[in-house]
Amino acid sequence: MCGTWNLQEDIMFSQEMLADFNDLELSIYNCIIRHKEHIAHITIKELADEAHVSTATVQRFCKKAGCDGYSHFKLCYKEYLQKDSDPLKVTERTAFKSFASYIDSGDFEKSIEKAFQLLSASQRIIFIGVGSSGILGKYGARFFSNVGWFSLFVDDPWLPILQEMDGAVTIALSVSGVTRQTLNLANQMKLRGSRLISITNTPGSALSRISDCNIYYHVPLIMANHTNITTQVPVIYILETLAGRLYAACTGNSQ
User: In whole angstroms, how large is the CA radius of gyration of the chain?
Assistant: First the structure.
């Protein structure tokens, strides 16, 4: 494990470290970035020559980076590159396979059908969510409107809900199902009479427990640089599937 790199935080060169580098150390840093895929095979002399510095300066650079020496530096850098790329590899290799197998299950179809029944009896549909879920909420509201169902997205998670919401269905989007703002607004909607459908990637979450229907999309949770990069393609599939069934029911066309 490399001292100040802290691989658990997916940070290799922190802002503080970069600010502390002198001109020679920045030259070494730039060479490493340019040759990052091959650094494991570059000798200390080759790196020093490329950066126009001495091997002693490279060694000092490695010490400042929290490593015992250049060999240790290369080992830590290799670990960092592997850790940095793993989340996307997991997404590519397993997320879609996981979701594709789940949509063929009876549980998924039951949740879709239950949501469809709630939506088909509604007078209006309200989408809520924050962050990437909010962006998908806007998309969902537009898509449902395109198929002839009055829909809107609430972009203010602190909006006070003072009027009765009988006849409305709220679709709450949240990967975790515990996003505070979304949970608070969903609770307000439900207390005012709206039926609640949640679309989450976490079964048994607080949001799913207060929902009349929860659609769980069952993909690996992916985090990188403290940011949730879990794929949202399943959410689009779910929204378009529900909108498609509503359209088919209105027009008499079969899905």
Answer: 25
